[in-house]
Amino acid sequence: MPETKRNILVTSALPYANGPIHIGHLVEYIQTDIWTRFQKMCGHDCLYICADDAHGTPIMLKAQQEGITPEQLISRVSAEHQKDFSDFHIQFDNYHSTHSEENRFHSTRIYERLKKSGHITTKTVVDLYDPQDQVFLPDRFVKGECPKCNAKDQYGDNCEVCGSTYTPADLINPYSSVSGATPVKKENLHYFFKLNDFKEVLHDWIENNPLQPGITNKLKEWFQEDLRDWDISRDAPYFGFEIPDAPGKYFYVWLDAPVGYMASLQQYCDRTGGDFDAYWNADSQHEVYHFIGKDIAYFHMLFWPAMLHGANYRIPTAVYCHGFLTVDGQKMSKSRGTFVKARTYLDHLNPEYLRYYFAAKLGPDVSDIDLSLDDFQQRVNSDVVGKLVNIASRCSGFIHKYFEGKLTSAFIEGGREVFDHAAQRNEHIKELYESRNYSQAMRSIMKHADEANQIIDAHKPWELAKNETKRDQVHQVCSFGLNMYRLLIGYLKPVTPSLAQKSETFLNTDTCWSDLASGKPLPEGHQINTFKPLITRVEKKSVENMIEDSKQDEAPAPADPINDEITFDDFAKLDFRVAKIVQAEQVEGADKLLKLTLDLGEPTGNVQRTVFAGIKSAYAPQDIEGRLTVVVANLAPRKMRFGTSEGMVLAAGPGGKDIFLLQPDSGATPGMRVK
Questions:
Q1: In this structure, are residues 203 and 223 in contact, taking their beta carbons and an 8 Å threshold?
Q2: pLDDT exceeding 70 applies to what percent of the chain?
Q3: For residue range 346-369, what is the model confidence (pLDDT) as tens digits?
Q4: What's phi and psi for 298, nearest 5 deg?
Q5: If both were cysteines, with which of 108, 132, 251, 619 could 255 make a disulfide (CB 3.0 to 4.6 Å apart)?
Q6: Contact at 8 Å (CB) between 144 and 128?
């Protein structure tokens, strides 16, 4: 029975338009491209759209640094992004920009529908104000001394020296980066989206849709209390869309960024005559999937579906998250040369090497993946070159030398069973692609390649060819090998499209998934073309050159002077206690903070406290819940942008992933004093 044709819209997160694509980004785009190519190969109507995320303060600052307009910057970066994606064989049906009239239209429409339905409110908050230029100052338009380490010339949201996160009002000796004037505190009207209005809708969506368990469990934690209103406005100067009927107020970049998915589809439909509403109407039966990194799940799985539902649009079918990329087990580093830009990679290596390697590592969960450079070279050479392409190269010469390039449908002894088994695994491999379990699909494909090579090795056509009476067996074993190659390269087509296309030219055939599912070999007398090298081995020197070209001298760490001397009596005032981390949560809008709920135990009266800790780069929330740590228990509460912090956990390390929570010796209990 033929499969029902599906209508599928697929998106990847929008790359930010102030810098180049690097191999960490490519995990997502390669993962998504494989899935969309697979769906198209199966005959479904599948659209893959994307756009540049082109708004926000960092875009303005980068343009100012280069002495150009934001529009000039985003135009140049968009061309660079699209060239990189194209050269990695990432095949978008449409690529657009959030700085577009389509995005302005849909962002405004969503906002106006939300406002009309009572889901937008205003609140007065205290912001920093430039008295000279008479403008409110966004985080990145305020600089000053870090309130934690006293580093100078730090932005108003976080310190680039010690990693602390704070509000502009916390800065010491703040000044406006617009005029240089000392800002003053001034009440300011902000616009908020009432996210809690959609708490039940979001909870039902999470419970009843095919979301990843690890992400679902985290999302459920957010529903244990009311969802906070979301600040969706920013003040001029800001590069973005002005809010209707609110002069000088602009949509926060995270409001119009996901609307870019709709804008890109709108441009595609206007260009092709497609039906936009068929995908986005509230009653749509089409499928919509977002592929994103796990770090932006909060925006895509709370704010975005709530906005859509409140504006009478459909909610996505599913949001699929992936983990981060490390290189040789460590965070990508410019000084080590492992922070590799897409273009630098392409200067040295075939893009399909990386496509295959990522596929061999990617599963359906949100686990991080590691690019081990030695394993990368060995696996690609062993699997793609040594196992798969080797079948074609070792069989094709005999077919042309002795049989005028024509195949026989008769297979050598044992060949038919191996071919049929590989063909019968079609549905299994199909299910693995559908569920994004690419690593298992690659293992299955290479297992069948091993079986094919075993048959060829067992019959040794290079030996049989020496005996004219055994040339029929040469024909049979090599025809078997080339039919196996056609089947397996067909299975691999979503991953290595260029290799598959070259192979189809060589085999004089075209392949869709139904061809693979038929289980039929090529017919008697099928003519193949002369074999030409399809892919070369990964050379270690090429990898080394790529790393060398990626190395950049990172700025030396600034001096970290010892603070002013304190007396023993000062130190004795500190009360260090053992605390249990009852709950750890992501903090919306904070790059480095986790919100910790600490239990200080019976000796302190079963006190639970909330502490904000700058350890997000080193710890996932689920990894530290239930652990014991040491906390400064008598530190005065400190009001932060994200809430009040009622203590400080002790940690050490240079930063990034190398932050180590101090843990008490085994046998400690919450509330125990640490001396």
A1: yes
A2: 94
A3: 999 999 999 999 999 999 999 999
A4: -55, -45
A5: 251
A6: no
Question: With 90 as the cut, is the pLDDT of residue 196 above it?
Answer: yes
Distance CA 302, CA 198 (A): 9
Query: How far is the C-alpha of 212 from the C-alpha of 318, rounded, in Å?
Result: 9
Give the closest residue to 649 by CA, choosing from 583, 579, 589.
579
The confidence score (pLDDT) of residue 518 equals 86
Structure tokens at 188: 């300011």
Angle at 15 between CA 54 and CA 162, to 5 degrees: 90
Q: Quote the CA–CA distance of 171 and 470 in Å, as a whole number.
A: 85
Q: Is the dihedral of CA 433, 258, 63, 556 positive or negative?
A: negative
Cα distance between residue 44 and residue 26, in whole Å = 24
CA angle 427, 389, 440 (to 5 degrees): 35
Residue 171 has phi, psi (to 5 degrees) of -60, 145
> Residue 449 to residues 236, 419, 487: CA-CA distances in angstroms?
60, 10, 10
CA–CA dist 651, 631 (Å, integer): 9
Q: How far is Cα 338 from Cα 358, in angstroms, rounded to an integer?
A: 16
Q: Residue 17 and residue 70: Cα distance in Å, rounded?
A: 10
* Alpha carbon distance 303, 341 (integer Å): 31
